[in-house]
Design a protein that fits this description.
- This protein is mainly alpha-helical and about 120 residues long.
- The chain has one domain.
- The chain is about 80% helix and about 0% strand.
- The protein has helices at about 1-10, 15-40, 50-70, 75-85, 90-100, 105-125.
- It starts with a helix and ends with a helix.
- It comes from Paenibacillus aurantiacus.
- This is ArpU family transcriptional regulator.
Length: about 120
């Protein structure tokens, strides 16, 4: 029975450790985006080996995060994650922004569900 249940699972569930790692990755998003922008402004072709490695690593993180956020099915959850992490707003600002339409505990739950959804998407790629 356990084997049959395991085979039916199309999308793996993220572990608590993977969710925590994803939260840290989301918090790094703006730094990575700034690194990419700075290097692109200077000209990618002029980068030394170390700078190119940093640029490539940051670009990869930014693309993976954007892709995973786009894959969040629930529009409200996706908007909350975009507002909090991609637009670099604080947790408090995020709660205040979305409590106009829902309870603060609901915003917090949706924020956590969004982080979990990103973690589960990152498992896939």
């Amino acid at each position: 029975m356990a084997m049959a249940e395991h085979q039916l699972e199309l999308f793996p569930r993220a572990t608590a450790e993977q969710i925590e790692k994803t939260k840290r990755l989301l918090e790094e998003y703006q730094s990575c985006a700034r690194i990419c922008a700075a290097f692109e402004e200077e000209g990618i072709e002029t980068l030394c080996e170390t700078e190119r490695a940093s640029y490539n690593k940051s670009t990869s993180k930014v693309k993976r995060i954007r892709r995973a956020v786009k894959l969040i099915f629930d529009r409200e959850i996706r908007e909350i994650i975009e507002y909090r992490y991609l637009q670099e707003n604080t947790y408090t600002d995020t709660i205040q922004q979305f409590t106009k339409a829902m309870d603060d505990r609901t915003v917090d739950r949706k924020l956590n569900k969004g982080i979990e959804a990103v973690a589960e998407s990152l498992i896939l790629f």
